[in-house]
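Report of the visiting student (M.T.), summer placement. My assignment was to run the structure pipeline on a short list of targets and document each run. The first record concerns ATP synthase mitochondrial F1 complex assembly factor 2.
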Amino acid sequence: MLAFRFAPFRPSLRGLVTATTPKKIKRFYEDVTVHQSGDFWHVLLDGKVVKTPRGTVLELPGKGVAKQVAMEWTAQETHLQPLEMPFTTIGCTALDITREDPAACVERLLPFLEMDTVCFQGDGEVLAERQQQEWGPLREWFQTQYGVRLSLASGLAAPQHPEETLPKVAEKLHDKDPWELCALEIATQTAKSLVVASALLDRHNTAEEILRLAQLEEDFQIERWGMVEGEHDITETEMLKWFAACREFGRAQRHAE
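After the run finished, the structure tokens were exported:
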């Protein structure tokens, strides 16, 4: 079995997921295949099963995500580029971190809901109207999905969600499998919103639509003041890449082939 030194997502970091490796590693394999083993799928490099940094066999919850992981390995050229391997990163993180302590993952998610982006109302009339148009239905969906109520806030004040909201959401989060929960955490940190990330996994939204919801305020400011080339556009490209991978992992068990 092959153990690749692939660094998983570090949950202490808020923002885009990163995968790092201590030194450049040359591509050391030729053939990449996928193989089903029981309820899970494995990726094999020259017949050797890929393992996580902690030495766990990289179990994947469906043929679709296994094929995506295999495509990432196939696409590598002279040297491996972990930053271009979001599916592999999520798979490793789900097993090495999320599965080991799902309760800690849930605890990391709840503060995002306490200060969720979509629960703040802008001061300007135009922005507030756009937020209500785009975020209003999203909040309604989340409230129905989790059986809770959310509150709105403006300015610097925090939303005053009902006391039972966070415990109810936490209870439902504990029901998710490690890959789904891991994908939700990564998407939440990327969007800075648990509500938006939940829609990525459980609502009929594309990754592009989720990006638009996550970037609503920033896009509004760009319309007014313009975009800084080489910053905003690259950031959105990275966000979209991770949203797409999170969406597939979050739905893998429900749509397993």
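The chain has two domains: 2-82, 102-251. Residues 26 and 79 are 4 Å apart (CA to CA). I thank the supervising group for their guidance throughout the placement.
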